[in-house]
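I would like you to sit down with the record closing this message with an eye to the fold:
=====
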Amino acid sequence: DRAVNGVIDRFRNKFGDIGVPVFDTKHERAKSPMNTGGAYRDLALHYGWALGRLFSGEAYAGRPSGDGGAGQEGFRPPLPARAIIMEEDVLVAPDFFPYFAALVPLLDSGDGLMAASAFNDNGKEGIVGDPERLVRSDFFPGLGWMVTRAVWDEIGSKWPGRYWDDWLRRPEVRRGRQFVRPEVSRTFHIGVKGGASFNWGGAHLSAMHLNDRPVRWEDKDLSYLDAERFRSSYYGRVLGANVADAEGAIAAAKVSDVRIEYRSFQEYENFARRFRLYDEEKGGVLRSGYENIVDFRPTEAALGNNTEKRIGKYLVFLSPPLEVVRKNMDDGKKMGREEFSQSLALNPENRNIGDLSGFQR
């Protein structure tokens, strides 16, 4: 497409002006009955191919586009320590790259993290609001994410031939590790026709709120995302929330944090639908959840206040019973992720996503 190529050329020149080389690499695959398995298979194969070439340095073969001293014949930059993975059909917030840059030290340190994402699966208009709030989650969101070389070295040789995102969410792959995500998404998906996201729910994706209030991430102290500090702070807030039923939760959230208890996955589904949250799990983990707890923030408009303020002060938590929450907090071994999920029929083995083992590269 000539228009698309024109945009690429303009940005290639912009990067060249500041000495950043742009390398072109194309995934050539011959059509055959073995590689026409639909969008899910094509995406998984392409992601695995691209990440493999990037981290191995194969993507830097040949001459890069751009100048600034870097566009010399034979120039090869150092192998990347990490990579940001982007789809071509997403819009990004103005602070997308500063957001990821601020998370580099935390992600590089390990600290029980597998990746960082720019997306909140439950980040719809009306139920999110604080652009500065970041959380740890057991759920891999995708849609703009950063991964380290160390993680790729671990999973690259096992990369599946389809459903790559669900594969990353499986307990045996995640191994208890978590992800950092924002309350307010830094990506907005616009390609809802024809691709893998078509069946996932175009209406859901189109309701997301893309951050329009840039944050100076370089000025922010993100040490609260340390695993133990975050855990202690989060559970403290959950336990301090006032218990409410679904009928009264939004009104109660005008004056305090609120907690709604669910005692079965079916009950969670009902609550999630009521509050416009995504009503499913993957790999035994609720979408956007932290140890089986999902939160959202009723905005001032959702609270019925006649104001331009977008941020509501208080959160609503959908959580397991209090005794389970307390046990999770006190045990230190993080009981309850897989164990409690299974008791709620959140067993990943029950999900109909197909046998991934037969579709390795």
About this structure: Residues 347-361 have pLDDT under 50 and may be disordered. The longest helix spans residues 39-56.
